[in-house]
Here is the input.
Amino acid sequence: MNIRRMIVGRPLASSEAIHQRLSKVKALAVFSSDALSSSTYATEAILLVLIAAGTAALGVSWWVALGIAALMVIVAFSYYQTIHAYPNGGGAYIVSKDNLGTWPGLTAAAALLIDYILTVAVSVSAGTAALSSAFPELAPYRVDAALLIVAFITVMNLRGVRESGTFFAIPTYLFVIGMLLMIVVGVARALTGSITPVPPPAPEVLAEELKFTGGLTLFLVLRAFAAGCTALTGIEAISNGIPAFKPPESRNASQTLMVMVALLCTMFVGTTFLANQYQVVAVHHTDTTVLSQIARAVFGDGSILFYYLQFTTLLILSLAANTAYADFPRLAAIISRDRFLPRQLTNLGDRLVFSNGIITLAVAAGVLIVLFDAREHNLLPLYAVGVFLSFTLSQSGMVVHWLKERKLPNFKPNWSWRLHIGINGFGAVCTFIVMIVLMVTKFAEGAWIVMLAIPVMMALFIFIRRHYESVARSLTLDGIEPGPLADRFKVYSDRNHTRVVVLMNSLNRASLQALEYALRISDKVRVCAIEVEPEATERLQQRWKEWRLTIPLDIVPSQYREIGRPLIEYLHRLDEECDEVIPTVVVMPEFVVSRWWERYLHNQTTRAIRAALYRDQIERGRGRPVIDVPYRIGDELYEPVALKSNPPALNGNGTAPEAVEPVEGTEAKQA
Here is the structure.
């Protein structure tokens, strides 16, 4: 525990959540590092395609870059509208699900989740490429370095959004300064005619690149355009993380988006311009990047500014993964609330971040880094397909969103409405065309993997949702008429007077079964709910009123979102108030799934409670009776005996006939 506190930091109370919000300066570093970092490799991706037509074709990269920059602006204005229309975040998933339906929403969700995993793998791999460009002797250790960077970013994000934002802001702005300085100096030298072209690769290397050339064709230009569209990755990140901004969230998020796109366009177009002016040639299977060649030519080989830019490029590329760490857990939590992913992804950790989502992202990205040898060019063909699929669905959903406004009373199709629908419609058409180009041109290079992974992940979503629906059908109270349970058991004269606490976070058939069992064995029953989510507590209190339950309901707040410690403190207070020798008995409802893997779709709260009670027993040297009341999912639905019949008649000895029999359909065991 001490090591954990040293690495992650002290727990943050739920009341501190508002203070963990990001300012625009920090949010630009957190949510824009992915997009800004793409300016370091997008130009190189274009040149690597065009080189197949010979060095003379590299000049086309300038026009390709201008077309991509125009597409950036279109997509940015589309997401500007999305931010104001959906201020609670969720981006393409929420927009698509609300306006196009569940299946398009799940398609966007799968594409985005895969994109965020690839973002981490690509960004960190590109960062290690920048490192090996400056220090070629480190090239054999690319994978090890990449995994260390992933581990470091994971730990920093587990420490909290605000703390990671503070840490990552410095390298982000240092990189922006370095890139803008390189562009200004390089353009100035181009205008004054003081340019020394970069020496071309060896003839045998160029011959290998031109081996399968067929000249400059439209298909090759489209391939180059598709490759350069990796520069658009990350533009949607801000729309997914709006709740992380300080109020007013939508305004701050939209302003940050505009600043990000302005910087991205400047750096991407500027880098491509300098690559043309300095006649940079990109070839495959080299540890020297296009950006490092430009920096050497502009600043001079071995200069301080050259190493400064290489070092900041390493930082921004490595830390660009932080954008995915900011968005993946939030998006996964939203999808999980809709019961398409395991519910553990909705849990906030000690530092008010979705810790389970952060760890899941780190593991998935680490696997990709190992499989693809930490080489970003091997991963880039997989990268942009999912991005543009989510772009297209998001913009199409926004078109439907604006069309729905026609049904509002007193609606008038003014110029503002037409402008909104026009921007989103044009954006949807453009991104759809680019998506088709990407699928065709990059299918054989690896895009087929993403095209296969998206439906597989969607099938997983549906599979998980069906399981949760099955659980809900087994636990629902539908068909049971509410009634005062406690009154039905007053006839049992043999009930003992030991205090019994039933643990409960919602009123369902499993918890109702445990409550009825507790009422059969004791006349001093209380119900305890540990308040981790205030909304769940409010629903429980509302159900308590609807059912006219007179059993005392104790709400125990948990400011650090844990269950064990608040429960132990609550039980100690009850023990101190009671003079009995036997400590307060704990009754735990527990629903049991039929397959082993289904357990991993649930929080396993009872195990955490048992562990806390066991630790308390060790510390105090005193045991506590704990009764589990299992409820098997999928079996015949439990019906409360006390509500489906009149109070039983008493025997001659003053006891009810079934007083000592367990409730039908339950299995009680004492631990």
Observations:
- Residues 646-671 have pLDDT under 50 and may be disordered.
